[in-house]
Amino acid sequence: MKEHDLVIIGGGPAGLAAAVAAREAGISDLLILERESCLGGILNQCIHNGFGLHTFKEELTGPEYAARYVQMVESANIPFRLNTMVLDISPQKEITIVNRERGLSVIKAQAIILAMGCRERPRGALNIPGYRPAGIYSAGTAQRFVNMEGKKVGKEVVILGSGDIGLIMARRMTLEGAKVKVVAELMPYSGGLKRNIVQCLDDFHIPLKLSHTIVTIHGKDRVCGVTLAKVDENRIPIKGTEEYIACDTLLLSVGLIPENELSKGAGVCINPVTSGPVVDNCLETSQTGIFACGNVLHVHDLVDYVSEEAAMAGASAAAYIEKMEKRPSSMVSIRADHGVRYTVPQKLDKENMGEEVPVRFRVADVYKNRYISVYYDGKRVLHRKKRVLAPGEMETIRLKREELNGFAELKEIVICTEVE
């Protein structure tokens, strides 16, 4: 059995940034495992710009952003294996892998970083009646066909879901000569960034219908149309509001799910809200020596935040390998409440933190003129007004060590929204 100090599962933006940070922290024996034929992950098919403004202080396309990190990995001589599928991770940190050249093998690691990213929610999760005709794609699949394989997926398009991928594909399909007739969204608000709504829909005069869903897909061999209907506050279609729209292509952008089957097999505790691992401020999971970062932990809106988070995971894994210490038995709980859906991390080790700890979270609804508040054992220590809070945009607050030092017996931190 081959042994490594650190094994990183996933060669996308999270895995690459974690590897670079671990090498900079002094870890020489590490390995990246990637199932695709090249490094870079999902960024390779994201040919639009808007990446890198925080990390590199310039605007890059997805492949350009990925190439920067691939170059860092290669310059640091960090080994990686491509076309390698991870089949299982045991709680003892034994990783079962398979690839064409080496066959089936097992790798033992002192520490593991989970960076497998996320996947799209499929049509099967939507319970839309109808046949299974050609012309139905997830937005990410259509993006790969168009951007990487040079294929045209349709001429008249309806998009269900207003997540960022769906919004970006509305613009991309238009630029490829297709007619995007409508973007329908079940919720009363968009799940994407405001800038993407403006640049991808408004600038191209593509209508966005909120509180709408597809109730029927028409066509047996190929999609020939869909029926939209308005939904009530319980997301139930309202009779009499049905509208038929002819189309030959339906793109689904109905949410992303962290790829955590391997995490569960390793015995990692999963947060039911994020569908990602429960972690502390070092991004260590419930299994000692197993860390998580990027979209496998929770779905991010900007890849720059993925890189920042992954760098923290890489440094934390390096510190663990150096000391091989177990987590303390008691930690400060970080809890989401009153309009905040979740926080990452969910635990805080006061004795093992830097000058500040970034806590990222999303709100449950669109709120205007509300406050983000932080409570330490019931005492409010932060009260910041925000003009607009939306579920599509991730928020960040930073817990400062000097403030935490004033609460010696701190048990719980609560992050919430308040009207006043």
Give the name of the CATH architecture of the largest domain: 3-Layer(bba) Sandwich
How much β-strand is present in the residues? 25-35%
Quote the CATH topology of the largest domain: FAD/NAD(P)-binding domain
Give the distance, in angstroms, between the N- and C-terminal Cα atoms.
Answer: 59 Å
CATH class of the largest domain: Alpha Beta
Number of domains: 3
- The low-pLDDT segments are none
Cα shape: globular
DSSP helical segment count: 8
Number of E strands? 27
Helicity range:
10-25%
**CATH superfamily placement of the largest domain:** FAD/NAD(P)-binding domain
Structural class: alpha/beta
Let me know the average pLDDT: 93
Q: Give Rg in angstroms.
A: 22 Å
The gist of it:
The protein is α/β, with parallel strands linked by helices and 420 residues long. It is built from 8 helices and 27 strands.
What can you see in these coordinates?
There is one protein chain. The chain has 420 residues and is an alpha/beta fold. It has 3 domains: 1-119 and 256-327, FAD/NAD(P)-binding domain, CATH 3.50.50; 122-254, FAD/NAD(P)-binding domain; 328-420, no CATH class. The protein is 20% helix and 35% strand. It has helices spanning 13-24, 62-75, 139-147, 164-175, 194-201, 261-265, 303-323, 401-404; strands at residues 2-9, 30-33, 49-51, 60-61, 80-81, 85-89, 94-99, 103-114, 118-120, 136-138, 156-160, 179-185, 208-210, 212-218, 225-230, 243-246, 249-252, 256-258, 290-292, 332-337, 340-344, 347-348, 356-363, 367-376, 379-389, 395-400, 412-418. The strands form 7 sheets. Strands 1, 2, 5, 6, 7, 8 and 19 form a 7-stranded mixed β-sheet that branches. It has a 5-stranded parallel β-sheet with strand order 10-17-11-12-13. Strands 22-20-27-24-25 form a 5-stranded mixed β-sheet, with no helix packed on it. The longest helix is centred in the C-terminal third of the chain and has 21 residues, at 303-323. The radius of gyration is 22 Å and the shape is globular. The protein starts with a strand and ends with a strand. 43% of the residues are buried. The mean pLDDT is 93.
